Amino acid sequence: MASPTIPNPSTIKPKISSNVAIVGAGAAGLTAARELRLEGHHVVVFERESKIGGLWLYEPNTDSDPLGIDPNRKIVQSSLYDSLRTNLPRESMGFQAYPFVETGLKDRDQRRYPGHKEVLDYLEDYAKVFRVSELVRFKTEVVRVRMVEGGKWEVKWRGLEKRVDVVEVFDAVVICNGHHTEPRLASIPGSDKWPGKQMHSHNYRVPDPFRDQVVILIGSSASASDICRDIAGVAKEVHVASRSVADQTFHILPGHENIWLHSMIRTAHQDGSVAFGNGRIVNADVIMHCTGYKYHFPFLETNGIVTVDDNRVGPLYLHVFPPALAPSLSFVGLPLDVAPFPLCECQSKWVAGVLSGRISLPSMEKMMESIKVFYTKLGASGIPKHYTHNMETYQFEYNDWLAGQCGCPGIEEWRRQMYYASSKRQLAKPETFRDEWEDQEWILQAYEDFKQRAA
Ligand code: FAD
Hints:
The chain contains 9 helices and 22 strands. By secondary structure, the chain is α/β, with parallel strands linked by helices. The protein is globular. The N terminus is likely disordered. Bound molecules: flavin-adenine dinucleotide (FAD). Flavin-adenine dinucleotide binds next to helix 1, strand 4 and helix 5. The site of flavin-adenine dinucleotide (FAD) has 33 residues, from helix 1, strand 4 and helix 5.
């Protein structure tokens, strides 16, 4: 497909052009950089790694602490396992500005749910086509971000090659540091005395180390679903413990001989045994926590204005702006259970437009009031604090609202329908959803749309 036309930044007349620091060059940081520059801002992206891509930069090495508890451990950003294929169809996963389509190139993965390398290649194409890489300072780790006189932001960064610390001042900072690196763990009574190996899925790469072992996985996420099948090919037994099934649950996974589904683990014991809520007891070698991640901003100093409380980053107006520091501090990419690329794109357009003064935010009091109402609603619906950024039920309405603010087209109907069809298939047919589908009509519409936009 032909490359999309790149609008000339000089044809856009922003009210204010800000000097903006972006932390991270993953999917969120890349789209933030593109959108902010399009709006006329001056952008610097700080990236700790030597390449763009963030999570999609597969790293065979893992953290030095497999559970991710030791604060001084060597940390690896990526949580990808070798066999990982996307859990969304490429058409609905990609950015609106740059369709994620088959390239037809020989060395590329043409599958609709491609392997992780294809996503990295796509992000590299995006960065090249929109000349985003030139904005990135690689091998620079942001070690402190804090507000200084005049409402400006001081960014202290460390050059990882020359080991130098440098301080620079910016008008605004956009935080895009990702949130799939700091493991969240399940609490298991007795696990401190349990003699087996415990780890988090963040540190899972390949099945081989689990050959002939008895492995317990905790969780019911996409990772647990993939990894239990990956490991079952070599392991003796795989037991999946889930909080979201009935207490008595105990059954073999259809189509498998050595994967059992249980209710949650009740206790772990010194003799190596593990008891489940369903009364079953298993002697296991490994417990793997596939239990998600914590938001973590070790570099951010806001005097307590922005906090992370039980995985709620707050207070944030619509998951982006802390009212007391808006618009000069913003977060792109926090929402969970979404198609992150198009969502980050919409959030980035919003941040860009608000920073230039083209789009207005409500007063600080009104934003705080709206956050209060939101938190009250979550509480009244029994939704735990740590689900604050879960947007499973309203991501597209949210994107459309942002698009409306920015004066750009909302989420395409085909994208929405494809996303829901895929999520449904993933639940009903976890073995085959990546290779068999029935949403041909939406695929045709997507490609028609891409063709029209490229013309
Ligand atoms: P990241 O990709 O994590 O990027 C953050 C960047 O910030 C990194 O490059 C990091 O090095 C940098 N950084 C962090 N701290 C600093 C610092 N202090 N200084 C400088 N740089 C820093 N999404 C999909 O759409 N489809 C999928 O199929 C899919 N599968 C997934 C599978 C797994 C196992 C996981 C964990 C997530 C998956 N996701 C998927 C979600 C995925 O997280 C998003 O697609 C997206 O990659 C997130 O981008 P990000 O930019 O927010 O974060």
